[in-house]
Amino acid sequence: MAVGRVRVGAVGCGYWGPNVIRNLADLPGFDLAWVCDSDPARLEPVAGRYPRARATRDVADLLGDPSLEAIYVGTPVSTHFDLVRRALLNGKHVLIEKPLATEIEQAEDLARVALERGLTLMLGHTFVFSPPVRKVKQLIDSGQVGPIYYIETTRVNLGLFQKDVSVLWDLGPHDVSILLYWLGEVPTSVSARGRSFHGDTLDDVAFLTLEFPSGILAQVQISWLAPSKLRRTTVVGRQRMVVYDDLEPVEKVKVYDRGVDRQPASFGEFQLTYRSGDILSPRLDTTEPLRLECAHFLECIQSGRAPETGPHTGVDVVRVIHAAEQSLRHGGTPQPVRLSAHHDEAAMLSRP
Ligand SMILES: NC(=O)c1ccc[n+]([C@@H]2O[C@H](COP(=O)([O-])OP(=O)(O)OC[C@H]3O[C@@H](n4cnc5c(N)ncnc54)[C@H](O)[C@@H]3O)[C@@H](O)[C@H]2O)c1
Predict the structure, then answer these.
(1) Which of 6, 79, 146, 334: CA 20 to 30 A from 38?
(2) Cβ neighbours, 10 Å, residue 51
(3) Distances from the Cα of 173 to the Cαs of 17, 20, 259, 324, in angstroms?
(4) With bands split at pLDDT 50, 70 and 90, how would you rate the model's confidence at 200?
(5) In this model, does residue 317 exceed pLDDT 90?
(6) Smallest Cα–Cα separation from 14: which of 90, 71, 73?
(7) Which residue has the higher pLDDT, 345 or 257?
(8) Cβ atoms 12, 34 nearer than 8 A
(9) What tens digit of pLDDT does each residue of 228-262 get?
(10) Are 172 and 325 spatial neighbours (Cβ–Cβ below 8 Å)?
(11) Burial of residue 207, with CB atoms counted within 10 A of its CB: 0-12 exposed, 13-18 middle, 19 or more buried
(12) Mutate which of 37, 57, 59, 84 for ligand 1 pocket (most atoms within 8 A of beta carbon)
């Protein structure tokens, strides 16, 4: 448990890192002590913005600073396992970008190390902290949507093509983390088809179908190869239907009082009646999701509380994406969502 301001360092000043670094620097509870990037062209502009933080190209400088309590890791996916493990072994609390790792065993290993050392390990699953996503969760939990039939989600745009992972590992964790958060369950199986149209091996387009223990179906479409950006999710329940469009400037969530009811007709037959009522758009908190994410990281470090997007979420997301990847390799055949053979239940006990 930390007392007073928490000294934090940030590794990765590329496309995404500076957004998180700005929020870490803005929060009064954090003292941004280090910024790090192996590429000087990426490091210098960020170092110039935060002159009170020390700048380095070598992460070892942060790991070797005994007064540094926490590290944010915003480097490419292929570096996550190694950097997070080193940070934890050096006694640092860690905020890591999605996904936690690309192998289930690696993700479980990081969860175990964090638990053994009593350190906060939190995933930057930003959407879980976004007010529209939280509003949809409230609508589901309050029963207003009714039992959910299916969820359909589209996350496509032109680029950014990643060099080290496919679209599945790049964009997939966003939708999977949202679905796990909303539904509170992990799918039993995943089927996926995908193609690499512009790279040699890394798929740039993927279509996933997830089946949950409750019977809910989810369809996820992700692509780096689309003419325009779409971020749209539809939740279809028995009582209401909800559309969440993250690109809408104000009315990101719309609740439709629409559905189909089965009415008994004569001689034991049924008749379908269509319900088309009001469309409501609930008021949403306008706080930046990354600020809420960083504030939650701070609060977890200070209180010792398990993060909402802790190792358990990180591992579950990796399990689902891993099953999707297996399905891709087997022509779209549904694949079970597994734990590793070495799965340690104790490491999963740190659920919030
Ligand atoms: N939460 C979100 O919405 C969101 C959005 C975009 C990216 N991301 C995640 O952020 C991470 C970074 O993605 P990006 O698009 O910013 O990548 P990027 O390639 O633009 O930036 C990564 C930076 O890390 C640096 N780096 C790599 N290895 C390093 C090391 N060992 N030590 C120090 N610096 C190192 C690189 O020089 C680069 O500047 C990824 O995990 C990605 O999945 C999250």
Answers:
(1) 6
(2) 8
(3) 17, 18, 30, 11
(4) confident
(5) yes
(6) 73
(7) 257
(8) no
(9) 999 999 999 999 999 999 999 999 999 999 999 88
(10) no
(11) middle
(12) 37
Answer whether 9 contacts ligand 1 (Cβ < 6 A): no
Q: Supply the DSSP string of 64-128, one letter for each residue.
A: T-TT--EEEE-S-GGGHHHHHHHHHHTT-EEEEESPS-SSHHHHHHHHHHHHHHT--EEEE-GGG
For the chain, what's the residue count?
352
Q: Is the CB of 125 under 6 A from ligand 1?
A: no
CA distances from 174 to 47, 146, 280, 282, 287 (A): 29, 24, 26, 23, 19
Taking alpha carbons only, the member of 142, 130, 72 closest to residue 301 is: 72
Whether 340 has a pLDDT exceeding 90, the answer reads no
Rounded to an integer, what distance in angstroms lies between the CA atom of residue 155 and that of residue 175? 8
The pLDDT value recorded for residue 269 is 86
pLDDT tens digits along 106-160? 999 999 999 999 999 999 999 999 999 999 999 999 999 999 999 999 999 998 9
Judged by DSSP in three states, 153 sits in: strand
| pTM exceeds 0.90, yes or no | yes
User: What are the E-state strand segments in the chain?
Assistant: 6-11, 30-36, 54-56, 70-73, 93-97, 121-124, 148-156, 189-195, 205-211, 217-223, 230-237, 241-245, 253-264, 270-280, 335-336
Q: Which residue has the tokens 């509870």?
A: 29
Q: Say if CB 19 and CB 290 are below 8 A apart.
A: yes
AA letter at 150: Y
Question: At 200, is the secondary structure helix, strand, or coil?
Answer: coil
Establish whether residue 165 lines the binding site of ligand 1, counting it when its CB lies within 6 angstroms of any ligand atom.
no
| Residue 336, both tokens | 């079970």
pLDDT digits 0-9 by tens, 60-79: 999 999 999 999 999 999 99
Show the tokens assigned to 258. 């629409």
Number of Cβ within 10 Å of residue 117's Cβ equals 14
d(CA 62, CA 226): 40
Ligand 1 pocket mutation pick from 11, 13, 15, 35 by most atoms within 8 angstroms of CB: 15
